[in-house]
Amino acid sequence: MAVGALMMVMGCGSGGDDTPRTASGSLEQLAAEAGCRPDVQTDAAELRQATCENGARRYVLVTFTNARGQAEWLDEANDYGGTYLVGGSSWVAVGGAADIAALHDRLGGTVVAAAEGRHGGGHHGHH
């Protein structure tokens, strides 16, 4: 299973610490909370994917219509390594570790580091 293959790095939620609640909403709503304008690359029934820039920060945001789609996407992404920010069962952000850490401060979620796979690290786009 995808989530089992990913190594958890940072928790989510707000249990009295400074971690923000996990954001939810459409791709555009998440981008607005992240402080960027999405450049939509994929607009399909099961997922929407956009690149986003906020100053020097660059990442990919992906929203899903269901948890299964997200799990399948994460399972495939695990082959590429990298750092991901996972928002519940409805979205994922992909980017460099520093970009994801900054995004985590805005969107909450769980930071995960995928195992380095056969393709190497740094993959920033899928599907």
Mind explaining what this structure looks like?
With 127 residues, the protein is of the alpha+beta class. Helices cover 28% and strands 33% of the residues. It has 4 helices and 7 strands, in the order αβαβββαββαβ. The chain has helices at 2-5, 27-34, 67-78, 97-107; strands at 6-10, 39-43, 47-54, 57-64, 82-87, 91-95, 110-114. It has a 7-stranded antiparallel β-sheet, sandwiched between helices. β5 and β6 (91-95) form a beta hairpin. The radius of gyration is 13 Å and the shape is globular. Residues 1-16 and 118-127 have low confidence and may be disordered.
Keywords summarizing the entry:
globular, 7-stranded antiparallel beta sheet, 33% strand, 127 residues, 4 helices, disordered C terminus, single chain, alpha+beta, disordered N terminus
Mean pLDDT: 81
Quote the beta fraction: 25-35%
Shape: globular
Please compute the radius of gyration using only Cα atoms. Answer: 13 Å
Q: Largest sheet, order of strands side by side?
A: 1-7-5-6-4-3-2
Helix and strand succession?
A: HEHEEEHEEHE
pLDDT under 50 segments (min length 5)? 1-16, 118-127
Considering DSSP H and I runs of 4 or more, what fraction of the residues is helical? 25-40%
Structural class: alpha+beta
Number of helices: 4
